[in-house]
Amino acid sequence: MMPADLDVAVLAGGVGAARFLRGLTMVVPPEGVAAIVNTGDDTELHGLAISPDLDTITYTLAGAIDPDRGWGLAGETWNAMEALARFALVKPAASAAGSTWFNLGDRDLATHLYRTARLAEGASLTEVTAEITGAWGIDCALLPMTDGRFRTMLTLAENGDVVPFQEYFVRLRHGVAISDVSFDSRFGGRRSELAQQPREALESAATIVIAPSNPLVSIGPIRALDGVDDLLVRRRDRVIAISPIVGGAALKGPADRMLVELGFEASVTGVAQIYAEVASVLVIDTVDAHLAPAVEALGMRCVVTPTVMSTPELSRSLAVTCLATIG
Amino acid sequence: MMPADLDVAVLAGGVGAARFLRGLTMVVPPEGVAAIVNTGDDTELHGLAISPDLDTITYTLAGAIDPDRGWGLAGETWNAMEALARFALVKPAASAAGSTWFNLGDRDLATHLYRTARLAEGASLTEVTAEITGAWGIDCALLPMTDGRFRTMLTLAENGDVVPFQEYFVRLRHGVAISDVSFDSRFGGRRSELAQQPREALESAATIVIAPSNPLVSIGPIRALDGVDDLLVRRRDRVIAISPIVGGAALKGPADRMLVELGFEASVTGVAQIYAEVASVLVIDTVDAHLAPAVEALGMRCVVTPTVMSTPELSRSLAVTCLATIG
Questions:
Q1: Residue A320 within any structural domain of the chain
Q2: CATH number of the domain encompassing residue B265
Q3: Is there a contact between B109 and A83 if contact means CB atoms under 8 Å apart?
Q4: Of A98, A290, B196, B276, which has the highest C-beta tally within 10 A?
Q5: Which residues form the domain of A229?
Q6: A97 vs B contacts (CB less than 8 Å)
Q7: ipTM for the complex?
Q8: Where are the beta strands (DSSP E) in chain B?
């Protein structure tokens, strides 16, 4: 159950969403904030259940994130991964065991060990996430978009191979072109659904913010769940999107190239095209002020403000601006 | 396939067996040695497949074991476990997740991550173990006694609860009395079997050594597999057992108390009673020399020699004595 006085629901990916939430929870009571978090990036490695976006947000809100990398814990050690490298020499060529391309810090491993054990006991990802965020002293709600299986898949342009998100993002260091994004959301013959708490949050929040996350592979998976776009369309006048594209480039990650590869402009207008149907406002950075008319031509109100959240104070200012935009 | 010129097969538990194997592989070519290793202690924790006896032997033979603890890696760090403790406060009371009673070092975790990933890919424990020992540069064969599920269970005297070995051994610090040892060896309706390579080793080895491991919960599980005792009886004149009881006490662990609790004497004669049917020789420590006649009265030849392997050189001497015993 969401609190009745829920102020803000945030559709969230990883780093950009985490930083926005950090600012937002400085200006509204954290208990009134619910983040609906992408789980399309989730993966299993070495038998462990890994939820990168949930963990990035958790560690950021806990003030424990590594500030330079933007993921993982500050002051982390890497002894397990270094020891794992020993096995790369002996594993069969076809085996993915002993992979160290997805770097798991020693302290970060504890989160995956706990999550894996609880899921094996039958807890839902929603329940486990509440426990993990509780352990970190986080007061806002982090809600996995679904408790079902959902995997974002990317088609590689070069050879048509369809690979899970982390293979593209981490293993291939998002250095290759893609030709498609798809979602593998069936498990046991059943389509994974928007979880109940995110649904209630989208229905009841005074304001809905689409965080400055990758529109295609961070926000896209949430929107791909049945009913999400319908809910957003119905509440469009309460929905604000923040552009993750600034000056034609992604602040982090491959969103700019991905947009182009999938036929969009790598610009705030490209973002506006993707969000115009479900959001009434697009927040863009001051460097893109000249594109405000183009955004408004697509039917969105355009708010121009600094959006690069390089400090907590800038995150806070951006949150204030967003909240002021929708009474 | 075992090499045709296999010299010694060793029935092996943890620390005592590991130290004996270290000495043995100094005096015979490691390629001629096969350890048949107890897997009754194996467990799953946090989704990871853990094989304590296999790892103790691996780390010992690799010269990487922590010399003080006798288990785990030297120079180990514990950052993952320390971080895991955070979740003990938030987990539901009935949950076993986030347990830190079974301490897993950061570098040791790599072994479990690799094993878990390979097993999930369909590799057998025999195959995975060969890969792991290969990665550590170990030339003798470490053979899990079975590739099937096999769990040593202990009945607690106080309340009749039946608990897996590690619950008793680690969680309860083997500090409570037991009333029974049993084996849960069925998986998917089928009884787990002695693996093929251990069977071949027992059939072909010139000498079979029962390492100075706990007779009830380290060697007992191996002997509980169908056909093992028959093989040992058939080759009894080639089978030497080394007493893990010295001066009426176990060098490590609860073997002495367990023997008494289950109706045996905590002495070399108690050990002789357990092994007389399957071994023709019992090697006992010099402090127990006065009990040699009692051992021989049970139908075993008794060899008296220093058996406390506090240095590699003493392990080596013990191995030399054992090999000299059976031409």
A1: yes
A2: 3.40.50.10680
A3: yes
A4: A98
A5: 8-74+123-149+190-325
A6: 114, 117-118, 121
A7: 0.89
A8: 8-12, 33-37, 43-45, 48-50, 141-144, 151-156, 162-164, 178-184, 186-187, 190-191, 207-210, 239-242, 245-246, 249-250, 281-284, 301-304
